[in-house]
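Let us practice reading a record.
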Amino acid sequence: MSQPDQGDLFRTTGAMAPAALSVLAETAHSSAYRGSPGHVAGSDTSEAAARSMKRVAGHQRAAVLSYFRGRGSHGATDDEVEAELSLPHQSASPRRRELELEDPPFVVKTAERRQTRRGRTAAVYVAAEYVTLRREQAGSEGSDG
């Protein structure tokens, strides 16, 4: 799957490339958050932050999903998403979490861990369509042949 230009994914006005539109449409009506960024119930600051992100969250979610799909079965950590897409942690992690909470999920947490740029251990996530492939690869590594 070819990756849309990141500029197209983050643009909030004007025409978007067809590939970016298809990923954006796929995630636009997220069942977990009904297309809006998540927030902590009862927290006025969290609710205000979610409202302020509503215009760009869909584009960010599409960019994050596209990045995970481009990584294939290798997947990515939140830190890798942040670095590649130039997103702050406060944007990258919530967009990945929204994709993870979908039913069915777009992104799935694996048992794998990798080091972040700061040397900490982080969970690796993959686009859901690569979960079976990862299991098959792990099974073939343990076989004799």
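A brief commentary: The radius of gyration is 16 Å.
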